[in-house]
Amino acid sequence: MAATTPGALKPLIAVCQVTSTPDKEQNFASCSRLIREAAQRGACIVFLPEAFDFIGSNTEETLSMSETLEGEQIHRYASLARECGIWQSLGGFHERGSNWESTRRIYNCHLLLNPQGHLMGTYRKTHLCDVELEGRVSLKERNFTNPGLEIVPPISTPAGKVGLAICYDLRFPEMSLALTQEGAEILTYPSAFTVTTGSAHWEVLLRARAIETQCYVVAAAQTGKNHERRSSYGHSMVVDPWGCVIAQCQEGLGLCYAEIDLAYLHRVRQEMPVAAHRRADLYGRVAALRNPPAP
Ligand SMILES: O=C(O)CNC(=O)[C@H](CS)NC(=O)CCC(=O)C(=O)O
């Protein structure tokens, strides 16, 4: 097993941090520059944040700029994959699904492309972010997004088995446990966290998910001013299965890199086998909790 051979080359991953605006051309220029840089540096997979394609300044603009998976945007990323020979996690594409005509809402879709530009996985965000913190944060994702219907099984990549999630999903440990039970070694949370919630919760949540699941956690993030009324927290990072932050982006646009050491992951799991210690016989009532009635 290559992963356990001492001194074996460990796969390098790259995490992108960008400031998407309503300008799709400019966003593609920024992302493609970072992807090329990651490939040149030898990364086998590059992770882009939620809304890497654009952040609209209002609902109408967001809907009008959305595309299908067969559209121009994804074609360009598929060509880039072939040109650079790199895997891409495109974490949160504004997707017009097959029900666009009837719903006039989109999906927040996380795509995984292989170096041939083939779509190896799609996950549509299941936990939508509808949050109102008076005077500070107002997000109404449900106004323009349909919730995804399922969690998808982790996908094999040269860095390990990748479990797909998006941003606000990070707050639901049930999902990270489900993905881990399905074999995930790397959990991905491409995000566009607000500054208010990010400064309070971001790193704590990412490290908690890594410690609980004993997975690598990869979180590419939006940073800076996306438009007049929206700023993002940044702090893209990689956390190892022991909960240690092993890479983090600086302020502004950029990349950070980490080596994935699956032998280390298996050692952590072997030495502290929390998965085997789980008391599934006790959690039934909690796991089966329904949404409480509205106040
Ligand atoms: O709207 C788009 O174009 C892209 N999507 C987003 O920015 C999403 C939904 S509004 N943002 C979040 O989920 C922030 C979560 C967050 O900040 C938290 O959980 O604290």
From TrEMBL:
UniProt keyword annotations, A-Z:
Hydrolase
Aminoacyl-tRNA synthetase found in the keyword field: no
- Coiled-coil stretches, from where to where? none
A molecular function (GO) held by this record is:
deaminated glutathione amidase activity
| Pfam families cross-referenced by the UniProt entry | CN_hydrolase
* Superkingdom per UniProt: Eukaryota
PROSITE patterns given in the database record:
CN_HYDROLASE, UPF0012
Under Enzyme Commission nomenclature, its number is 3.5.1.128
Tell me the ranges covered by the CN hydrolase domain, including all copies: 11-262
Do the record's keywords include Hydrolase? yes
Protein family membership: Belongs to the carbon-nitrogen hydrolase superfamily. NIT1/NIT2 family.
Name of the protein in its database record:
Deaminated glutathione amidase
